[in-house]
Design goal:
By secondary structure, this protein is mainly α. About 70% of the residues lie in helices and about 0% in strands. The model is unreliable at about 430-449 (pLDDT under 50). Keywords: Cell membrane, Membrane, Transmembrane, Transmembrane helix, Transport.
């Protein structure tokens, strides 16, 4: 990882803060928009309903991002976390929506979020199951699980006829080379904004080549007010059960993402900090349902932005939340970002996600060098990769099994925690009551309580 250029409590100059916030926006916006689009397509929603769902997702993600970064009393981890709609809920959402419509999805999400809210109070205990070896496995699995996504972006989208097209790979390689150059030889704002600079230059080249489709911008409304309870809400018992299962999986994944973020920011993540973060995820998802948004969770891909650039300021990412709110109110802005070709995002994404892998490897290097640790690492990463690389492995399993074990991050984390608990000679490390913060952070903490 780069040396930390801006720490968690630092406030970069306003122009730099805006550029760095846009950088996080570019990394997250596609994923945030993708979930409501997938749900809308599966449920055959009309255009106005699809637009309302996308706008709500952007707005909800932005509001919860601000709360997660800034903190409100016991809510919010106060780290640079970008929140967004999670693919963990897509399977459950489609199954509920097919029978009960979007109202069933939103009502089930609202009710089942109590699982995450209740789980937040047990995070100090759960934190004890994440020593260096386990945390290193989880961080590495986050990067390993995200890397195929970047590869698919670079190759012009999985399943398309143009997959692996030479021109797409050339664009992705060009952007990757730019990001490497800016990180390695850039100074100050150039190095810190390497991702956004690489994407902007790659985008400009694609515009000059005539391969950018501006149709989404022409079709998007300029301004749209949020529509609370636009779809209504209902509370089917089967839907609540399905969503509750997805929330349990999300607790595991989000815990791993927070631990990875701790590595990237140089902050020791305590059980109390995890409680605040998970509580924000749960309450945020319930509140998002009220404004017609699918559930939200912490985005792992933005950990790669922090890892690569060394910009750990939570105030930068809070501004990203503001930009997401604006994107929800002004859909034309989000539509403009959507026009960025996938290979451009793939070139930058490959670098970001690979840096998360490197951070996990460094953590594993600090763990105890023993046969026990090697077993935990080998088996956990092997199981996680099995699901990541061959998702069809679970095709014959019941739905609830696929829901729990469909994510390589979840499988790797659960295997590491289980092996660490069962194998003799359990690794131990001190668990702090609170992570170290600056005087400014302590002042924020006091004022928010």
């Amino acid at each position: 990882m780069n040396a930390v250029l801006y720490r968690v409590e630092d406030r970069p100059p306003t122009p730099m803060t805006l550029i760095l916030a846009v950088q996080h926006l570019l990394a997250a916006l596609g994923g945030i928009i993708a979930v409501p689009l997938v749900l809308a397509g599966a449920l055959h929603l009309d255009s106005p309903s699809t637009i309302a769902l996308v706008n709500a997702a952007l707005l909800g993600s932005g509001i919860v991002t601000i709360i997660q970064c800034k903190g409100v009393g016991p809510i919010g981890i106060r780290l640079p976390c970008v929140m967004g709609t999670s693919f963990t809920f897509v399977g459950a959402g489609i199954s509920v929506g097919m029978e009960h419509g979007v109202a069933g999805i939103l009502g089930s999400s609202m009710a089942a979020s109590l699982i995450m809210i209740a789980g937040s109070f047990f995070m100090p205990t759960i934190r004890k199951f994440f020593p260096h070896t386990v945390t290193g496995v989880v961080v590495a699995m986050i990067g390993l699980s995200l890397t195929p996504v970047a590869v698919d972006w670079a190759a012009q989208g999985m399943g398309g006829q143009a997959y692996g097209d030479l021109s797409s790979l050339a664009v992705a390689g060009f952007v990757l080379a730019l990001v490497i150059a800016f990180v390695q030889w850039g100074r100050g704002i150039v190095s810190a904004s390497a991702i956004v600079l690489g994407i902007l230059i790659g985008y400009a080249v694609c515009v000059l080549l005539g391969v950018v489709d501006f149709a989404p911008v022409r079709q998007a409304p300029v301004f749209a007010l949020p529509k609370p309870l636009f779809f209504g809400v209902s509370f089917p018992v089967s839907g609540i059960a399905a969503m509750a299962l997805a929330y349990l999986v999300t607790i595991v994944e989000t815990t791993g993402t927070f631990m990875a973020l701790g590595v990237a920011t140089g902050v020791d993540i305590s059980g109390k900090a995890l409680s605040r973060g998970i509580l924000c995820d749960g309450i945020g998802s319930a509140a998002a349902a009220l404004i017609s948004s699918p559930p939200v969770s912490t985005f792992a891909q933005n950990v790669g932005v922090v890892t690569l650039t060394g910009v750990a300021s939570r105030h930068v990412v809070a501004l990203t939340g503001v930009l997401l709110v604006l994107a929800g109110l002004f859909p034309v802005l989000g539509a403009l970002v959507v026009t960025i070709p996938q290979p451009v995002l793939g070139g930058a994404g490959l670098m970001m996600f690979a840096m998360i892998i490197a951070a996990g490897v460094r953590m594993l290097g600090k763990a105890a060098d023993s046969r026990r640790s090697s077993l935990i690492v080998a088996v956990s990463i092997g199981c996680g990769l099995a699901v990541t690389m061959r998702p069809s492995l679970l095709a014959q399993m019941p739905d609830f099994i696929r829901e729990i074990f469909g994510s390589g991050i979840t499988v790797g984390a659960m295997a590491a925690v289980l092996l660490n608990a069962l194998l003799p000679g359990q690794e131990r490390e001190p668990v702090h009551e609170e992570f170290p913060v600056s005087e400014n952070a302590e002042a924020v903490e006091r004022s928010s309580c």
